[in-house]
Amino acid sequence: MKHTFFLAASGVGSGLTSASLGVFRALDRRGIRVGFCKPISQEIGPDGGPDPSSAFIARTTGFQPAAPIPFAEAESYVRNDRMEELMELVVERVRRRADEVDVMIVEGLLPTESQTFPNRINRAAVTALSAEVILVNSVGVESLETLEESLEIAASLFGGKNSPNVIGCILNKVRTSAAQSANQLVPVVGDPGEIDTDRVAGFDRDALEAVKRRVIEGCPIFRSEGFDLLGCIPWNPDLPSFRVSDVAAHLDARIVNAGEMHRRRVSGVYLCARNVANILHLFRPGVLLIAPFDRLDVFLTAALATMNRIPLAGVVVTGAELNHPQLLELCRPAFALGLPVLNVSTDSFTTATKLSRMSNEIPADDDERFNVTLDFIARQIDVDRIQSRVETDLELRMSPAAFRHQLANRARKADRVIVLPEGDEPRTIVAASICRQRGLARCVLLGNPDEIRRVAALQRVQLDGIRIVDPAECRERYVADLVELRKSKGMTEAEAREALEDNVMLGTVMLHKGEVHGLVSGAVHSTANTIRPALQIIKTRPGSKVVSSVFFMCLPEQVLVYGDCAVNPDPDVESLADIALQSAASAENFGIPARVAMISYSTGESGAGADVDKVRQATALAKQKRPDLLIDGPLQYDAASIADVAAKKAPNSPVAGRATVYIFPDLNTGNTTYKAVQRSANVISIGPMLQGLRKPVNDLSRGALVEDIVYTIAITAVQAEQAG
């Protein structure tokens, strides 16, 4: 470990945990080997249990933080004048994994109004760890003089603003607007609107920069040498809210129907007092309705809205037990579509009041909310300034966060047009909207414009800037092109018209003509339906023997490439060698160093048989074609991936124990392995990305999530740039 940053809160409610994890995420996205430690936790008792911060890091990265010391135990050490012993435990926990990282993020204790122990422990820990301190301060409606005073007091605990240990601060929960007084930070008024890369929580990036300048110019502490503003994180009401399952736990509710309560999030809570005719406008996606048990009209309308594909957050029935068997049976179709229904004994007003007091803290198991929040925070951190504090060079790696960050940046620079033949599919529409917001690609939706707009309205997404093409209006002009392309097969005009009824074929012809740069399909179509038109129209790239695929497997510690897991059932020797070379090139094109392992059921010369011989011959052929490539095989999976096993089974291999590209001998092995790893290790797999075509066409899993589609579109944009 080369450096330690200690994050300390300057007051209650500063968002210390979010800021600490945000700094971790920001450095991790740079490819820096970064670790995290919360040596003492105020959120676990003497009997132990997972600390939310540490548990999240362990679940989502390859780093396993040391288990924190319960605060009650730490307090006992201090009360008994055993601070030095406590610090030995703190140092041991922080440095337990020190040889695995270059930078360690340490989250300090939160100050409390009734205890002095947290500040004493934080001060002692900074000294013991020789750490540099980053203060975290929440900024609400307060003057710059108040902010200055708060930062001065917090810095004084660690030697003052001029101390070399105190390097700056992160301002969190900043509320601002375009209209503000000379030295006042004021809250946003009105609808914050839609988030994109240039607009955050109701103010644009220029306004945020203006706030930063006002803070730096108005607070003398920032004129101290070495004390910097390291981040300015705006208050953002558009970040994911709590889930319906969180509401159920908070209200201690009886669950009438669980539905999608663990996935649906609450964007608004409404108390239904008026008759249904006057509240129909409330039945919108993300709305949680509260109604007394005798308002069956509200309950039935919610069910009807659900059956009309409006994803309400749910319904809370108050005042008495909901026990109407016939009513519940009538609503069974809505229940099957995921509508959560909760039941509480308290009246509606009391229930709504209790909900208004619900904590905004992120539950320990809500990885989605953690991830979105931390990505937002990470974008507001001045990573260059923090990284500059580390004097020695850092060893970089391709972590999942770094891979996604690099992929998004390259897609933005590519600025390519990607056609989506499944234009009226809800996930595809949402993904296209996200790509527009993030600037990842210019998407073209194929489909009936009225239906696309209807689905978009139900999903509450904007289609501004997204091109919609009606196949019925443009299909005819591609008939002659398709007849010409398929004339060797004797295609007639009538057959061409029939073929172009398939939007995938239509999009493929558009790609061939250069009207778009890439195509993504498969959310509702089979892999064969996506690939067949590409093979017929786009055809393979010169020098490619086959079309193959890879998955980018975002394992906790790094991104690996798996191929072929989607296309070729049983490739021969030449095809398997070609797949290996294609996959190595794909890895290199996306910043992953290619060390190729040809996977088999035996390692080296230990096995024999037709299957292992095929792998051995394909390895030799690939080496002959690319002698510069690190490739070895046959290797068993454990020999390819685990250093200790590699030392025993393949001690002289340049790949064993450190492979980044895994080539499977057939589709049965590859598809089974990728799904087993994906599901058992709970990792994200991006793909399949097709290889070997003249122009990029990519397939989706029919179970793809919106984020999967977004990243596949981004990959396609990058491929299109590389294709020229």
Give the amount of beta strand, in percent: 15-25%
Helix proportion = 40-55%
| CATH topology-level fold name of the largest domain | Rossmann fold
Report the sheet with the most strands, covering strand number, pairing sense and barrel closure: 6 strands, parallel
The residue-averaged pLDDT reads 85
Structural class: alpha/beta
Account of the 3D structure:
This protein is an alpha/beta fold and 724 residues long. The protein has four domains: 3-239 and 367-388, P-loop containing nucleotide triphosphate hydrolases (Rossmann fold, 3-Layer(aba) Sandwich), CATH 3.40.50.300; 244-356, Udp-n-acetylmuramoylalanyl-d-glutamate--2,6- Diaminopimelate Ligase, Chain: A, domain 1 (3-Layer(aba) Sandwich); 403-538, 3-Layer(aba) Sandwich (Rossmann fold); 548-691, Rossmann fold (3-Layer(aba) Sandwich), CATH 3.40.50. Helix content is 42%, strand content 17%. A six-stranded parallel β-sheet has the order 2-5-1-6-7-10, sandwiched between helices. It has a six-stranded mixed β-sheet with strand order 23-22-24-21-20-25, sandwiched between helices. α16 links the parallel β16 (417-420) and β17 (442-446). The radius of gyration is 29 Å and the shape is globular. The model is unreliable at 178-203 (pLDDT under 50).
Brief digest:
By secondary structure, this protein is of the alpha/beta class. It has a 6-stranded parallel beta sheet with strand order 2-5-1-6-7-10, sandwiched between helices. A 6-stranded mixed beta sheet has the order 23-22-24-21-20-25, with helices on both faces. Strands 11-15-14-13-12 form a 5-stranded mixed beta sheet, sandwiched between helices.
